[in-house]
What we know:
Elements: E1 37-41, E2 52-54, H1 58-61, E3 65-69, E4 78-83, E5 88-96, E6 112-116, E7 119-120, E8 133-142, E9 145-152, E10 156-160, E11 162-166, H2 177-187, E12 195-205, H3 209-220, E13 225-228, H4 260-265, H5 287-295, E14 300-303, E15 306-314, E16 317-325, E17 331-341, H6 347-352, E18 356-357, E19 366-367, E20 370-374, H7 378-383, H8 390-393, E21 443-444, H9 454-475, E22 482-487, E23 498-499, H10 507-511, E24 519-523, E25 530-532, E26 547-549, E27 561-564, E28 576-578, H11 590-593, H12 596-616, H13 620-626, H14 628-635
Parallel strand pairs: 12-13, 12-17, 13-14, 17-28
Antiparallel strand pairs: 1-11, 2-3, 3-10, 4-9, 5-8, 5-11, 6-7, 6-9, 15-16, 16-17, 18-23, 19-21, 20-22, 24-27, 25-26
Helix pairs in contact: 3-12, 12-14, 13-14
Bound molecules: flavin-adenine dinucleotide.
Amino acid sequence: xxxxxxxxxxxxxxxxxxxxxxxxxxxxxxxxxxxxxxxxxxxxxxxxxxxxxxxxxxxxxxxxxxxxxxxxxxxxxxxxxxxxxxxxxxxxxxxxxxxxxxxxxxxxxxxxxxxxxxxxxxxxxxxxxxxxxxxxxxxxxxxxxxxxxxxxxxxxxxxxxxxxxxxxxxxxxxxxxxxxxxxxxxxxxxxxxxxxxxxxxxxxxxxxxxxxxxxxxxxxxxxxxxxxxxxxxxxxxxxxxxxxxxxxxxxxxxxxxxxxxxxxxxxxxxxxxxxxxxxxxxxxxxxxxxxxxxxxxxxxxxxxxxxxxxxxxxxxxxxxxxxxxxxxxxxxxxxxxxxxxxxxxxxxxxxxxxxxxxxxxxxxxxxxxxxxxxxxxxxxxxxxxxxxxxxxxxxxxxxxxxxxxxxxxxxxxxxxxxxxxxxxxxxxxxxxxxxxxxxxxxxxxxxxxxxxxxxxxxxxxxxxxxxxxxxxxxxxxxxxxxxxxxxxxxxxxxxxxxxxxxxxxxxxxxxxxxxxxxxxxxxxxxxxxxxxxxxxxxxxxxxxxxxxxxxxxxxxxxxxxxxxxxxxxxxxxxxxxxxxxxxxxxxxxxxxxxxxxxxxxxxxxxxxxxxxxxxxxxxxxxxxxxxxxxxxxxxxxxxxxxxx
Length: 644
Ligand SMILES: Cc1cc2nc3c(=O)[nH]c(=O)nc-3n(C[C@H](O)[C@H](O)[C@H](O)COP(=O)(O)OP(=O)(O)OC[C@H]3O[C@@H](n4cnc5c(N)ncnc54)[C@H](O)[C@@H]3O)c2cc1C
């Protein structure tokens, strides 16, 4: 049998490939017939238009995808050019889903079309099945090249993962994720083995506050670092993509320089008492500032838009990570001496076999913060969101005119339910628009798997937001000149796996101010744990969407509490550090440590400890047993100080 041949056309970043003889990957028995395909990854479209690249669920559904996140306004087309091996007829398949079908909700809001040379093919996509699948688009006739566009019809979260043209019109592509991955990689002509991505002293995975600070701190202490982040920006929940305002006190007296790097990378904004800085304009989170600091460190190799997909271990040590580009699917192998898991979900540790705790019940949920704009207010509309998104900006001009919003029969039906922002419903003392938008308590997934069901949880948050706005606008007839301005499509997570270290810190330790000799980072947030809020549970048991938080004397501790270094490395994977919300704490111990300035300071310590490991040829545990003095003296130095 002749080997398969690939033709790669890379001119416009879209990859279009022709396979010669491939085993058929349709349903039923593989057969060795000649197949010709053009496989187009949505994320490789030359121009994403107003569609967002979503990588959050790639392990579960097999790939990043494009999302028409328009808050009810159709987003601009994503476009690309493709070449066909020969002119003629092809069957076209589009990988997509009806995102509200998991709840049997009517209406298929995520509808979109495929335009071929500017003309829509008759089939409308996003209308079938609760799971990702290949939707048959029928047979099309093409010349040797064509333009392709994803044309959103609704602005309500339509999604497309890939498009496949098949010369054999009887061919059915597989929906099995593992088989599809193989099929995809072969058609894209991607190498079987990852390419060499280099050797590093420390590889940090996750560019939230914790990971970014870990990388900067390690680099300034003279070691060679790779920072792998699966989004185009740094900051995690504190980025303009999620918009959570960082809390926690830095630069406390025992080690007054711990917190220097946190403050260097965060915008110099002082939050006034009672001010809400969650979900406000993108500029508040200043992604560029974080990127600039990292990019000016010669010891850091920054790998944005790359996700860790595999971890290679030997004798309880991590040897290397396989990372995959979320834009091109290219894989790299990174070799490291030390690793820091700052993913929040403990992905690196989990894949390496590190001890961890995680039970899918009574969890703190995930949120997709959102805001609302008053279109009559020039400051509000023109000053912030117009610059964010060209597609949304089209309908976001300042003006004293009505802002209609469509009915959303597929969203949560809140027509006869209380929810924050509804007249007569008080939430934490407020009952106006300020209790509706920008609020942390629109939260869900309390009994869902925050790692493996993230798409479902995020989508439930969308259904809550759209359902509530529909009621306010169309039933209660309030806020006629307001519009949804922005909402996160990346789920802001609070709780998932926690890796176990030599000390597992509990809430009691904070309350009793239990002292440890390996003082490392100051904690100043109360024992903040979330549960579904009872007032809003009725009718939504198991699918709650508003949370409550623990408060009162029982959840306070007197002074700043210095947590121990032993929470920052794995007890069974010898060269693994962790920083951020996946450190070694119990379920209740997570409450006080999870705020972002505190997470950032953990990163600062991990960076310094990693430098001690390299200089003294020891392990993270060895720093505690043999070089604690060394670590503590580094901790007294300014965060800006550099050593060779
Ligand atoms: C709505 C909401 C409100 C909150 N309120 C506050 C608040 O007011 N103040 C506060 O300080 N904290 C608040 N928190 C908590 C805080 O945001 C988190 O605990 C904190 O962000 C954890 O920091 P982190 O660096 O560990 O993780 P993250 O901020 O989640 O960063 C982890 C990063 O790693 C990346 N990543 C994950 N997996 C991979 C992978 N496999 N490969 C590469 N990259 C990967 C992610 O994309 C992400 O960017 C809130 C959280 C939420 C959701």
